[in-house]
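Tokens in:
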């Protein structure tokens, strides 16, 4: 219970900081909306309607780069003095789990906003919406867990932004392949059974990332 209490307090701190510094959140929303609008202008000659494969690919591209921009600031905005203060009052597991939980909620919100804008501006070719939304939620949580751990590692280096991009993208490829596969099934209107194994694999990957973060972050914290 003490760990959960520490996680909740740290998440509240992140929410308060985000609300006071709304420029970053507004920037992410602007990035998503402007990207959707550029896609609409690019395909306006086709009546604003993208082919389903292009719609699917662009959606995950937008979500991936939005996730990288959103999660990267999680550890980079923490000063060294603040991190030393955390070291004296909370456990390292609480720090990493709180960051993952906060980033997961943030990315879920961004993903739902992106899906809504896509549906309004570019049409909604998804035939199995519950499957697609569930896949998006798993993807947002997976992005949050993987990129948060990578951001924690990169924060210890001098050129942290470059290191995060170098480490993060290869780790995201297997997850992206599964996400795109399930999204394609949702676009085609296939039933849940056709995507069950992929969804269970995504869930397992999310649990593995959470377990690895819980076990390894204390060693990174002490370095």
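Residues out:
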């Amino acid at each position: 219970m003490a760990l959960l209490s520490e996680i909740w307090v740290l998440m509240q701190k992140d929410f308060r900081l985000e609300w006071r510094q709304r420029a970053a959140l507004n920037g992410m929303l602007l990035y998503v909306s402007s990207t959707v609008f550029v896609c609409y202008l690019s395909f306006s000659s086709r009546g604003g309607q993208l082919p389903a494969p292009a719609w699917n690919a662009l959606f995950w591209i937008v979500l991936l780069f939005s996730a990288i921009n959103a999660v990267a600031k999680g550890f980079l905005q923490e000063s060294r003095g603040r991190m030393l203060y955390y070291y004296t009052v909370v456990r390292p597991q609480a720090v990493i789990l709180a960051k993952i939980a906060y980033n997961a909620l943030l990315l879920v919100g961004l993903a739902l906003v992106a899906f809504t804008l896509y549906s309004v501006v570019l049409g909604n070719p998804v035939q199995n919406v519950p499957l697609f939304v569930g896949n998006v939620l798993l993807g947002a949580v997976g992005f949050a867990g993987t990129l948060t751990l990578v951001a924690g590692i990169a924060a210890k280096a001098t050129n942290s932004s470059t290191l995060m991009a170098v480490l993060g993208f290869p780790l995201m490829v297997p997850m992206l392949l599964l996400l795109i596969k399930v999204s394609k099934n949702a676009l085609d209107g296939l039933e849940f059974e056709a995507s069950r194994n992929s969804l269970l694999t995504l869930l397992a990957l999310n649990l593995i990332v959470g377990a690895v973060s819980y076990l390894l972050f204390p060693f990174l914290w002490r370095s």
